[in-house]
Design a protein that fits this description.
Length: 289
C-alpha cells in the first residue's frame, strides 16, 4: 500500500490528500502543533495521525506540501532534515526560483523533488482539480498513480522542476489580480452610482481577456494613449479614497509599450517588448524582426 503524507492539511491540502485514498493509498498527517480546525479536517477526510514528522518521513512514499507559500521553504527544510527517501511534492504557489531553492534542499538526501501546481477549487464529489507536475518522469508517474480515478486530474509537464510553479504563477498573476481590479472598478462605479450600467457593459462580454491573445498587439500599439488613461483612473480612485496602485501598475505596463505607438506587430513581439531591456533603454521591435 502506498503511504501519502500531507503537511499542514488546509482546506485544499486535506481534500487533495483524501482523493489519494480512492486508489487505495493510506494518507497520514502529523497533528503536533496543528490547529483544531486542521484536526477537524483530518477527521472529516479520514486522515490517519502519526506522532511526528520523523515518523511520517519514515513511513511515507510520497509527501505533499500544500501550505501558504510564505512557509513553503521552511516546511521543505523541515522534511529535508528527516531521513525521507520518497517523493516530495511541493504544490505551493511559489516562483520557479523558490522551487529550485526547495529542490536544492534535498540535493544531499535520497528524496526526489517534484514541482506541483494546483489549479481549481478543492476536489469533491462535484468538483475536480487539476494537478500539474514537473520533474523526473518516474517520480511523476508515482504521484500520478495515487490519483487515478479521483477528482484530482494530473497533468504531467515535459519540462524540469520549476515549470509547474511558473504555470501556477502565470495563471495567478491574471486570475487573482483581475479579481482585485474588478472589485476596485465596482467600488469606483458605486461611488458615483453607475454600478448598474457597469454591470450591463460587462455582461456583454463572454470570454476572458487571458485567452484573447490576438488582442495583445492592438493593446501594445495603443498603449501610448492608454497609459495616460490609466493614470486618470488612478486619480479618480485617489479622489474616491480607493486604492490606486493597481491602476498605476497598469500604466507602468503600458509605458513599456509606449514606443511602439501604432506599430503593427505579432503576439510574440508584443510580449517580448514587455521585458525590461538589458541596457535599461527603451523597448524596440528591431531585435524581434
Amino acid at each position: 500500500m502506498t503511504v501519502v503524507g500531507i503537511l499542514h492539511p488546509g482546506s485544499m491540502g486535506a481534500a487533495i490528500a483524501a482523493q489519494a485514498k480512492k486508489s487505495g493509498a493510506e494518507v497520514v498527517w502529523c497533528p503536533a502543533g496543528r490547529s483544531s480546525a486542521s484536526s477537524e479536517r483530518a477527521r472529516k477526510y479520514g486522515l490517519a495521525p502519526v506522532d511526528s514528522l520523523g515518523t511520517m518521513a519514515e513511513r511515507a512514499d510520497i509527501i505533499l506540501s500544500i501550505c501558504p507559500p510564505a512557509h513553503a521553504v521552511e516546511v521543505a527544510a523541515a522534511v529535508a532534515a528527516q531521513p525521507f527517501a520518497g517523493v516530495y511534492v511541493d504544490g505551493n504557489a511559489i516562483s520557479p526560483a523558490t522551487m529550485n531553492r526547495i529542490s536544492s534542499l534535498f540535493s544531499h538526501s535520497r528524496a526526489t523533488v517534484v514541482d506541483g501546481s494546483v489549479i481549481g477549487s478543492p476536489p469533491s464529489a462535484s468538483k475536480s482539480t487539476r494537478l500539474y507536475l514537473a520533474g523526473q518522469h518516474e517520480p511523476l508517474a508515482t504521484v500520478a498513480s495515487v490519483f487515478i480515478g479521483s477528482a484530482v486530474h494530473v497533468h504531467r509537464l515535459p519540462g524540469p522542476v520549476g515549470q509547474a510553479s511558473a504555470l501556477k504563477l502565470s495563471y495567478s498573476s491574471y486570475q487573482k489580480a483581475s479579481r482585485a481590479l474588478a472589485a476596485v472598478a465596482n467600488a469606483l462605479a458605486a461611488e458615483h452610482g453607475v454600478e448598474k450600467e457597469l454591470h450591463e457593459i460587462a455582461q456583454g462580454r463572454t470570454t476572458s481577456y487571458l485567452a484573447e491573445t490576438a488582442y495583445f498587439p492592438k493593446v501594445a500599439a495603443r498603449a501610448w494613449r492608454w497609459a495616460p488613461e490609466m493614470e486618470e483612473v488612478a486619480r479618480a480612485l485617489d479622489e474616491a479614497g480607493l486604492p490606486s496602485e493597481l491602476a498605476m501598475a497598469s500604466a507602468d505596463v503600458m509605458e513599456r509599450w509606449a514606443t511602439l505607438r501604432d506599430t503593427p506587430m505579432t503576439i510574440e513581439q508584443a510580449l517580448a517588448a514587455l521585458h525590461a531591456p538589458a541596457d535599461g533603454g527603451e523597448a524596440s521591435l528591431e531585435s524581434e524582426r
